[in-house]
Amino acid sequence: MRTTSADRDSADHEPADHEPADRELVIHKPATREPATREPATHEPAAREPATREPAIHEPAAHEPAAHEPAAHEPAAHEPAAHEPAAHEPAAHEPAAHEPAAHAPAIHKPLIHDLGTLAHRLHHPPGTPCACPPPQLLADRPDGTVVRSGPVVAKAHAADSDREALAARLALASAPELTGILLPPLSTPDTPGTAGTALRPVTFWPYGVPVDPRDPDAAPWAAAAVLLARLHRTAPPPPLPPMRGPVKAARAVARMIAALPGDGAVLPVQAAWRALPAWARGEAAPPAARSGFLCHGDLHLGQLVRHPAPDGPWLLIDVDDAGRGDPAWDLARPAAWYAAGVLAPQDWLLFLDAYRSAGGPAVPAEGDPWPQLDVAARALTVQTAAVALAKCAAEGRVPDEMEQLMIDSCARIATFPPELAAGSAS
Amino acid sequence: MMQCPKCHAQMQTYNRNGVQIEQCSGCRGIFLDYGELESLTRLESQWSQQAPPPPPAPQAYPAAAPPAHAPAWGAPQYGQQHGGHYGHHRQKGFGRMLFSS
């Protein structure tokens, strides 16, 4: 347990009336289309609002596994890792949020508060009594801090985000041709961004209901696959940067090595990594024939929400890694789980068949898909194992059973040279 | 460590998709725990209802269901001669890893 709820409350109330945008946030406006789904309240965001109580942040109980939380009580996640609330299963590059309070970065507290305040202002009319539920922390990582207030979700992106690339990705999520595939951002009233150090760009999104981690039978494998197929079949708009999948895999490996200097546990993961072609390690452009597709870049079950909540269609969220690339990358995480024995074959086949039926271009319509999937699935296996080992080091524990399966998979990968599909290796 | 009742080589324990199996390192035979065969039979009948025509029922031990396509580096049950025993402990493998980057 990080703090008592009394601690949290007082800490969160304390800075209640500072102006959030002045410190470490810069508001990022979506470039194009107005989302059909929600009009944000149009009040002056910079004005102080004495009549309106800014609700305190409700952080998910960090010690509590997601599986113990009833859905209605903790609807939670909008972002990767958010269902096991930020806390339980932090994603790559983030500090282990369920460490004791001493490790919780105090610097994040004001940021979280600010995000809650900003999100709240987008839906709560000024000067009216506030009975809104307190803002809820959905994820807290250096590359993505996400807070929900009612129907609005505010996300602070990485401080070192490439602003042009982020703008292009937001425009992508707003583009009419991606309607029904990507969740579009909310448009925001004008709010001046401010200069300063450690600015993190902020975007606003409608809340959507995430995949329920306690109900495997309800996991939307087929819907995810159809969304990916439609995404991959959409021509990427010209200014879109490359998909960031390989770069993230490289970061995961670097993080693992930094966390376990000289430790033999990293050797099979490193060996599998070194055998990958340069493009899959983020060190070269992917083969031209497969590099021009519109890709999500970081697909997992935390990247799907139903919108409008609670019964709307599934949509993909989080465009931070989206871009041009090899569409096999978006299938490669489920493929890697399947190959390791983590994902049941029937789930994998459901996903793969739905992708093929929807005309997805990453794999041939029939026959063995592995020549196309092999390199990316190896890379995602390495990334997953590397993140697992880094987490284990940070948390002073041994890998759990599923993590061990991914590490074992790396050991096998290192002993089999990549299947070379035409154009999929460099 | 168990010894294979057939060839007496060491048996290796695998836990795949939540199913605990022992495989002989010599003859590659599979040892099933109590109730496991019934689970497999049930799964197989569900499977064959969905996917006609069913392959001829395997007579020999170990069982031989046609595996789905899998990479050469896949976990032992794929690509070997015994597909089919997965899924009934799926809950165990769900969550956590499947929801994070």
From TrEMBL, chain B:
- Please list the residue ranges that the record marks as compositionally biased, kind Pro residues: 51-69
List the InterPro entries: TF_Znf (IPR027392)
Domain of life here? Bacteria
* Record-linked Pfam families: Zn_ribbon_TFIIB
State the coiled-coil residue ranges.
Answer: none
Q: Give the Transcription factor zinc-finger domain ranges.
A: 3-41
Region: Disordered; residue ranges are 45-101
State what protein this is by name.
Zf-TFIIB domain-containing protein
